[in-house]
Design goal:
Elements lengths: L1 E4 L5 H15 L13 E5 L11 H9 L10 E8 L6 E9 L2
Antiparallel strand pairs: 1-2, 3-4
């Protein structure tokens, strides 16, 4: 997985993640034991495959930059559907922030 770490005050995100996990556990089994690591997923690399050769250097360049600021306008829930050609992602719901 290729991801970008979220920095700054992440306590509100942790509380949101805990609340979502608690709510979902009432309707579906939730894998327990994984700690919350706030991040933005940029992409995935298939198992056994190597990313393009220039990617590690490009990511290193971004790692040294000042953090970006971003205010989300909502949250989306997506489902990952495994298939022969790889995963397919389907949006399930979107809630706008007020």
């Amino acid at each position: 997985m290729i991801w970008y770490r979220v920095g700054g005050s992440t306590a509100p995100l942790a509380r949101l993640a805990y609340a979502v996990r608690a709510s979902l556990s009432e309707i579906t089994p939730i894998a327990d034991g994984s700690s919350f690591r706030p991040h933005v997923t940029l992409g995935r690399v298939r198992s056994g495959k190597r990313p393009v050769p220039w990617l590690p250097e490009a990511l290193q360049e971004y790692d040294n930059r000042a953090p970006a600021s971003w205010t989300p306008d909502g949250i989306e829930l997506w489902r990952s559907v495994m298939g022969v050609g790889g995963s397919r992602y389907e949006p399930l719901a979107r809630v706008a922030f007020q």
